[in-house]
Design a protein that fits this description.
With 279 residues, this protein is mainly alpha-helical. It contains nine helices and two strands.
Length: 279
């Protein structure tokens, strides 16, 4: 390659000096805000901050309803916030936690039921157990893979439900914005309405799958390892598969209205934060 030269005052040429980077300049860190950064650090993580904060808020809003759901039907016992399992929950991690929660709730039903067989050692061992004790009990009777009982139903429910959930939210929000003639793509009314609507539609579509999953997991909890467990059928045209749907839809509608309203508001506030001045 030809060497780059610069013209000297005496007419000769000398090699061009390489540019040495100034190591004294501070490096921008997305985690440590300083006066040399051109962009506020929170803006790089606005989605994570908004999602986690909104999940906490919506969870506290639903906590009283969750406590009341314990003595209800098995399908209602497994109902939970769509926002939680869609934005913060993976199937591999979430499946054991959901089964443990279901077992703890069913134990309340079995303890209060006069028809439950206290002579069955497997069934009676789940009564009046805490969360960790319930998990150990499942492993003792079903093995480690017993924590993943109903994993196929869980995977099917969350895959279909998540697709319907976000499709309904984004489509509904855009249609409402156009109908209102608003210049903002995240107007409060359209966000709140679309958030509640996506919870209603998604639960109405996947509820029979959730009911089949709950029934299968309940049957697994009453069987020891090696005992056959009947696989329930997913029947969308059977009324009993929709038992408890009204309560779950109302709960999901309220939670997702709160979640998405908070989510979009926090993101908007973070975007409006002033950027540090470069000195």
């Amino acid at each position: 390659m030809p060497e780059i030269h610069e013209q000297r005052s005496d007419g000769g040429a000398s090699p061009q000096k390489p540019v040495v980077p100034n190591s004294s300049l501070p490096r921008a860190s997305p985690l440590i805000p300083n006066s040399q950064q051109r962009k506020h650090w929170a803006k790089q993580y606005r989605t994570e901050i908004a999602a986690s904060s909104s999940s906490i808020l919506s969870t506290f809003a639903a906590s009283s309803d969750t406590r009341r759901a314990a003595p209800r039907s098995s399908a209602e016992d497994s109902s939970r916030s769509r926002a939680q399992f869609d934005l913060g929950d993976t199937i591999v991690i979430g499946s054991p936690f959901e089964l443990t929660k279901l077992s703890a709730q069913i134990s309340v039903l079995m303890a209060k039921s006069s028809t439950s067989s206290t002579d069955d050692p497997v069934r009676s061992s789940y009564q009046q157990k805490g969360t960790l004790s319930t998990a150990r009990n499942i492993i003792m009777h079903r093995g480690v893979m017993g924590l993943y009982s109903g994993f196929g139903f869980h995977l099917l429910r969350d895959t279909i439900g998540t697709a319907i959930y976000f499709t309904t939210y984004e489509s509904g929000k855009q249609l409402l914005v156009k109908f209102q003639g608003s210049n903002s793509p995240t107007s409060p009314l359209s966000v709140a309405t679309a958030g509640g609507l996506c919870g209603l539609v998604s639960w109405a579509c996947i509820y029979p799958i959730d009911s089949a999953k709950t029934h299968y997991q309940r049957n697994c909890l009453t069987k020891a390892k090696g005992q056959p467990v009947k696989m329930p059928r997913i029947q969308f045209n059977k009324a009993s598969m929709y038992r408890g749907l009204g309560v779950s839809m109302a709960r999901s509608c309220a939670i997702n209205t709160i979640f998405f309203s908070s989510f979009e508001l926090i993101k908007k506030r973070i975007n409006n934060l002033p950027d540090p001045v470069v000195s």
